[in-house]
Amino acid sequence: MEIDILKDFSFTPVEKSKIDTFDFENVQFGAKFTDHMLVCEYKNNAWQQAEIKPYAPIQLDPSARVFHYGQAIFEGMKAYKDVNDEIWLFRPEENFNRFNKSAVRLAMPEIDETIFLDGLKALINIEKEWVRKGLGNSLYIRPFMIATESGVIASPSNEFLFCILLSPAKSYYAGKIKVQIAEYFSRAANGGIGAAKAAGNYSAQFYPTKLAQEAGFNQIIWTDSTHTKLEESGTMNVFFRINDTIYTAPTSDRILDGVTRKSLIDLAKKEGYNIEVRPVLVDEIVEAAENGTLKEIFGAGTAAVINQIEAFSYKDKMYELPNMDNEGSYALDLKDKLTKIQNKLADDSFGWTVKI
Amino acid sequence: MEIDILKDFSFTPVEKSKIDTFDFENVQFGAKFTDHMLVCEYKNNAWQQAEIKPYAPIQLDPSARVFHYGQAIFEGMKAYKDVNDEIWLFRPEENFNRFNKSAVRLAMPEIDETIFLDGLKALINIEKEWVRKGLGNSLYIRPFMIATESGVIASPSNEFLFCILLSPAKSYYAGKIKVQIAEYFSRAANGGIGAAKAAGNYSAQFYPTKLAQEAGFNQIIWTDSTHTKLEESGTMNVFFRINDTIYTAPTSDRILDGVTRKSLIDLAKKEGYNIEVRPVLVDEIVEAAENGTLKEIFGAGTAAVINQIEAFSYKDKMYELPNMDNEGSYALDLKDKLTKIQNKLADDSFGWTVKI
Ligand SMILES: Cc1ncc(COP(=O)(O)O)c(C=O)c1O
Ligand SMILES: Cc1ncc(COP(=O)(O)O)c(C=O)c1O
After folding, report:
1. How crowded is residue B12: how many other Cβ atoms within 10 Å of its Cβ?
2. What is the pLDDT of residue B234?
3. Which residues of chain A does B33 touch, with a Cβ-Cβ cutoff of 8 Å?
4. CA of A154, closest CA in chain B: separation in Å?
5. Is 50 exceeded by the pLDDT of residue B2?
6. CB pairs A-B closer than 8 Å
7. Is the Cβ pair B190, A225 closer than 8 Å?
8. Which tens digits make up the pLDDT trace of A311-341?
């Protein structure tokens, strides 16, 4: 795709790139950013000219709505560089559409496709050098929007800032994780904002997750309002394998409609796995763990693609899962296949990858 | 109370006050602020020196946690000037304690009483001129805390900024309001953050409230997860009078424990009203409206003290309340009595008011 940067976006380059000071071997997820960012203001009922400019602090009035009422949404996606140095996005329209759904739910203006998608491509074009090749390397992309209007009035802002940040990422094998099934705390309400990638959903999880971590777990698997159905976990949707069938909860207004989740469902079907989207009950998973038919649980999300779960606790009892790594693990197979599509190391028959 | 500002707080005065440009007759709630603000940083596991300095923008990294994960809490309280030019706070320890409860739920550090309460007193002392006398005039106080650490990592921040802003307020008679009973949307989950004054709770209400406003209502009365119990509304707790008894919902992890609510409960008891704290069912209110025993509904919160509700809708049917203004309205009587205590125009037998 050719983008005439000077036409659609105003571009101010950094004086000196900081790429030489960046350690691509030791990368902490989400901690450091590339030289430039894209910013675009919304005011007078319209998106203004988008700018690509040096990464720099944002200055806001202390009464800005985002500080007081959490009117803020974001997205998380990745870019990959193939062996020919071409850069690819994975299903970017999915993130664009989800961003605008989040915007509606948070009473924020929808963003134009030109700003979000073409802007992103223009920005990555400028930051090409920051995307490294090789399986495990990627560029994490963080589009977000915040309410900037001043005034401590609990009503929607009329001014917003849209911004895209880029952060080089590397996947390390972090090991399998232990999770706790939520019995008291909740992440989202029926008719609430759980399905939106709204800022407030994440800080709401911090305290319960901290308690779970203090008790020796990595994450919580959130349940519905009756604490009987398994929903999602941290920043991942969740899959359960009982015998030879994979189950995952349907999306709802409590659950984020994950791009990895929907891609895995399609991929699993294509690969001939039995996969069913239907409510997953805590009781059936406990029972399956007890009678040995529960083979695997895994989380799915952009950051880690797939995270295997080795144990869960429920009502103070710990349930260990068998190690299927050398016995045809579905999680490992699906992770391998999806990662190869994303990295252009396997044929993309779904047409999911988009060249920049 | 004597505060040695130079000892406990660093103080940088403005060069020139903007008080002469402030129109005290035409005040829009929460829109404009006084000359100074209090700020205090949290880092290296400790609150740093608090500073009182000119009101000015806050500068943050674009990856600051508050923008992405909504880790932010606030309080709302008021100061009043009496006929002798003394300034009074209303139950400030309640707001201080609630702030720290919110902090715990959002995995943020609790603030020291010296910074919150003594800091507030020192700040108001400096801004004395901004507090006007006379019933209806007050100074709105907005303490808040935001997560400032950079990095798009969905985990609690290690750095925070606590801040207090002051905004002169005036109460106008805004009229009675019309509300809609929530049948689909929710404000808070069981085991969620509804009881905290967390930023994310407010933006979550914006879209449903916008829809309600487009349908001709001012606010929504939120219900529990089964949409059968009436809980609270916007930034107010809610009271229902059936015949001669006032009912209000008990607080829970979904409902904010309002200072106005608890003060009204005590005041109503003292004044000899029948008041019961117990779950209030949608069905009983609809029935009472239909058989004419529903006399009043009112919201209670710091901003407006009491807001009378003249009509509500449920399942697309509108229920009008009788006009009790000249027939011994409990809402008007309680509002008058509470406002007079706050403004030091009536004896404060509860010891609720605290002199600065
Ligand atoms: C709450 C939540 N669930 C699930 C996911 C997974 O979604 P995706 O696969 O689109 O990254 C995310 C995002 O990472 C999330 O924030
Ligand atoms: C959600 C909510 N409910 C009720 C109230 C009323 O609380 P208070 O009386 O302490 O102002 C507030 C705060 O204003 C609020 O934000």
Report:
1. 10
2. 87
3. 62-63
4. 7
5. no
6. 230
7. yes
8. 999 999 999 999 999 999 999 999 999 999 9
- Contact between A206 and B71 using a beta-carbon 8 Å cutoff: yes
Nearest CA in chain B to A193: B204
Judged by its nearest atom, the ligand closest to the C-alpha of residue A265 is: 1
**Residue type, position B8, single letter:** D
Q: Where in chain A is the domain with CATH 3.20.10.10?
A: 177-342
Question: Would you say residue A1 has pLDDT above 50?
Answer: no
Cβ neighbours of B317 (radius 10 Å): 10
Quickly list H helices, chain B.
5-8, 65-69, 92-105, 113, 119-126, 199-214, 259-270, 282-290, 330-342
Closest CA to A138 of A221, A209, A80: A80
Mean pLDDT of A172-176: 81
Q: How far is A21 from chain B (nearest CA, A)?
A: 18
Q: Which ligand is nearest to the CA of B249?
A: 2
CATH topology of domain B177-342: D-amino Acid Aminotransferase; Chain A, domain 2 (3.20.10)
pLDDT 10s digits, B258-314? 999 999 999 999 999 999 999 999 999 999 999 999 999 999 999 989 999 999 999
Tokens of B306: 């009491």
- Asked if residue A259 has its Cβ within 6 Å of ligand 1, the reply is yes
**What pLDDT digit, counting tens, does each position of B102-128 carry?**
999 999 999 999 999 999 999 999 999
Q: Is A150 left (phi over 0), alpha (psi -120 to 50) or beta?
A: beta
Q: Report CA-CA distances (Å) from B299 to B16, B163, B239, B285, B317.
A: 40, 28, 6, 15, 21
- Is the CB of A201 less than 8 angstroms away from the CB of B203? no
Domain with CATH 3.30.470.10 in chain B: 9-169
Per-residue confidence band for A7, with pLDDT thresholds at 50, 70 and 90: low
The per-residue pLDDT for range B169-195, each reduced to its tens digit, is 998 777 899 999 999 999 999 999 999
Residues of A in contact with B209 (CB under 8 A): 155
Q: Which residues line ligand 2 (CB under 6 A)?
A: B 76, 197, 232, 235-237, 256, 258-261, 301-302
Helices B330-342, B259-270: crossing angle, 10 deg rounding: 110
Question: Looking up tokens 């990368």, which residue turns up?
Answer: A27
Length of chain B (residues): 356
Q: Which residues of B touch A55 (CB under 8 A)?
A: 62
Architecture of domain A9-169: 2-Layer Sandwich (3.30)
* Rounded Cα gap, residues B124 and B141, in angstroms: 9
> Candidates A140, A256, A342: which one to mutate for ligand 1, based on the most atoms within 8 Å of Cβ?
A256
Q: What is the mean pLDDT of residues B82-87?
A: 97
Ligand 1: nearest atom to the Cα of A95: 10
